[in-house]
Design goal:
Elements: E1 5-9, H1 22-34, E2 39-42, H2 54-68, E3 74-77, H3 83-96, E4 100-104, H4 113-127, E5 131-135, H5 137-140, H6 146-155, E6 159-164, H7 169-178, E7 183-186, H8 192-197, E8 202-204, H9 212-224, H10 228-245, H11 250-260, H12 277-297
Parallel strand pairs: 1-2, 1-8, 2-3, 3-4, 4-5, 5-6, 6-7, 7-8
Length: 302
């Protein structure tokens, strides 16, 4: 499997009682398919997997496959503290016919690179599916390095891609130069242009939940058209949104963005709390300006 294009880590809509809204979830998936994103990830941090029970995660993956069918690749997140739990999520992904799984480092445990590699290989053995690794030391407190990559890549051909979210450009350079067998995907939004310049062909971006066409426009400009002047104009227009999202209340902002485009995201689960009216208004202003500027950059076709 080749990872190319925009991959959306889908939100999980909630109803007024705080339970997962299956109908609204299906509407989110249909919205993304219609907008022509290139793949959908279920069970990521944007989807609030950490606040879901194991059964809710199993059910969401199965529902996503039912809705999506074979129209787009479906990637299932396996994130958990315990390797045994990640293995069960991987088995469930295989059972429903997912196209790939997302494998990150277990949070809080602080594994060594050798231990982290053993964790990833256990998950791989359980599923036998293509794997997108997920390196996010800001959340997991450990980073995937040379020892990790050499171990897992030497042991299995299923490790085919990585969502690189360290924010460290040196890590991007190492991946591009030393591990060309991995499809590098941007996981640090305000570096998307740099990732594409270094050969990345995909971007896992939470903002594509509500402005998918604008994210697709940047991918097309940089990867398909190789027009980095156009890409810089699009990226410049998107930077205020990147700054807003990194200012706190990330998932809340993504969900409110979905509300702005007519979806029904509902609230967030504890420990997160909702946005203030002022924050909502500021986000709406940022999004409106972004859409106007991107449309101008692509000739009104975003």
């Amino acid at each position: 499997m080749k990872f190319q294009g925009i991959y959306t880590p889908a939100i999980t809509p909630l109803d007024s009682a705080g339970q997962i809204d299956r109908t609204a979830f299906a509407e989110v998936l249909e919205y993304l398919i219609e907008a022509k994103v290139h793949g959908i990830i279920i069970g990521g941090s944007t989807g609030e997997y950490y606040a879901h029970t194991a059964q809710e995660r199993f059910d969401l993956g199965a529902l996503a496959k039912d809705v999506i069918g074979n129209r787009l690749p479906l990637i299932i997140g396996t994130g958990a503290v315990r390797t045994e739990d990640s293995v069960e999520y991987a088995k469930a992904a295989k059972a429903i016919g997912a196209d790939a799984i997302l494998v990150g480092s277990p949070p809080y445990a602080l594994p060594t690179e050798a231990e982290n590699a053993a964790h990833a290989l256990s998950i791989d053995k359980a599923a036998g599916l293509p794997i997108m690794l997920y390196n996010y030391p800001g959340r997991m407190s450990v980073s995937m390095g040379r020892e990790f990559f050499d171990t897992v890549l030497g042991a299995s051909d299923n490790f085919v891609a990585i969502k690189e979210s360290s924010g460290d450009m040196g890590q991007l350079h190492r991946l591009a130069r030393e591990y060309p067998q991995l499809d590098v995907s941007c996981g640090w939004d305000d570096q998307a242009l740099e990732f594409f310049a270094w050969g990345a062909r995909s971007w896992v971006c939470a903002g594509s939940n509500f402005i998918p066409r604008e994210h697709v426009a940047l991918y097309e400009a940089c990867v398909l058209e190789k027009d980095f002047d156009k890409g810089r104009r699009i990226m410049s227009a998107m930077m205020p949104l990147m700054d807003f999202l990194e200012g706190g209340k990330f998932v809340q902002s993504i969900k409110h963005g979905c509300q702005l485009v007519g979806l029904r995201p509902g609230g967030v689960r504890a420990p997160l709390q909702g946005m203030t009216e002022d924050e909502q208004q500021r986000l709406q202003t940022v999004v409106s300006e972004l859409k106007r500027e991107v449309a101008a950059a692509v000739g009104g076709n975003a």
